[in-house]
Amino acid sequence: MGLLQGKFAIITGAASKNGLGKATAKLFAEQGATVAILDLDEQAAKTAAADIGAQHVGLACDVTDKDSCYTAVRTLIEIWGQIDILVNNAGITQPLKIMDIEPKNYDAVLDVNLRGTLYMTQAVTPQMREQKIGSIVNISSVSAQRGGGIFGGPHYSAAKAGVLGLTKASARELAPDNVRVNAVCPGFIATDITGGLLTPEMLESIVAGIPMARAGEAKDVAGCCLFLASDLAAYVTGSEVDVNGGSLI
Ligand code: NAD
């Protein structure tokens, strides 16, 4: 029996073909969960869901829009009757220096990474509280812990640090209802978000600074999300787990 047999899981930003969300959706499905992939483009979300199996659901959702989050979650509760797991994975980054960050850059990055995490948490909380069980996994970043240094500007580091604060505060508030909230901090993981930003020379110099001497893979992050989402982590809440090949040692 899979670790997530009988569980219903929402993963935001999981339509990206080589992304962390899609790898997590695939692993959750392999472990018995029914998964909903939420992303900006409805067709991309549906295609990604169909890729992992016919029973999975793809829905359009813009996590920066509270109504959009609530509508998606309401739709899923109508279909499934329960929500056991939420992975707040949707994220964007911009490789800007501090003096180049315009208000529109700040808003875009904070809105998707931080506001979106809050809105989706708010959307699932009443259902998880009522069930008296739930696991929320928020994707932060090593950039929050070491002040960037790999990719993404200071506004990205600030947004992902905000995600850590939100994780701990919501973990504290929701713990009495057995709703757990944890954060995963990926280091450098080879996906479309990173591939588009780096030259081969930059890639080489990043890998040279990683004790395990390789970039992470999306499945490395997915495995950590699986642990936190599953009952193996039944007494784990408010934690931040590093998946970074030793980058902070
Ligand atoms: P990705 O670009 O492959 O996927 C991000 C997904 O988020 C895309 O499918 C995109 O359409 C979706 N998205 C963007 N804005 C959205 C919105 N408003 N509403 C809903 N969906 C939206 O990126 P990835 O590398 O798979 O990153 C996934 C998460 O991991 C992000 O939060 C990212 O910040 C974080 N992260 C990635 C790395 C890395 O090295 N790749 C490292 C640390 C943290």
TrEMBL record:
Chain coiled-coil ranges: none
GO molecular function, one term: oxidoreductase activity, acting on the CH-OH group of donors, NAD or NADP as acceptor
Domain of life: Bacteria
Gene Ontology BP, a term: fatty acid elongation
Alphabetized UniProt keyword annotations: Oxidoreductase
NCBIfam families in UniProt: PRK07231.1 (NF005559), PRK12826.1-2 (NF009466)
Family statement: Belongs to the short-chain dehydrogenases/reductases (SDR) family.
Protein name: NAD(P)-dependent dehydrogenase, short-chain alcohol dehydrogenase family
Organism lineage string: Bacteria, Pseudomonadati, Pseudomonadota, Gammaproteobacteria, Oceanospirillales
